[in-house]
Amino acid sequence: MDKFIITPKEDKTVTMTIRIDRALQQEYNDLAVKTNHSRNELISMALRYALDNMELKDK
User: How far apart are CA 55 and CA 32, in angstroms?
Assistant: First the structure.
């Protein structure tokens, strides 16, 4: 019988605190209910999308 090998868990997430407007938080709360995604998942998706689609302009 093969051995049951357990490898170290790779932790790729961090906890970060941000301040946002209450109205924006409520929009994410509502969207979380509608989509069955956590607010955290939705915010992570939005941040990834923003970085992937960002264009920086020189002054």
Answer: 28
The answer to whether 45 touches 52, Cβ cutoff 8 Å, is no
Do 35 and 42 contact (CB within 8 A), yes or no?
Answer: yes
Q: Are 21 and 10 in contact (CB under 8 A)?
A: no
pLDDT along the chain (59 residues), means of 10: 87 92 98 97 96 94
pLDDT in the model for residue 22: 98
Q: Please name the residue that has the structure tokens 């979380």.
A: 32
Alpha-carbon gap, residue 2 to 5, rounded angstroms: 9
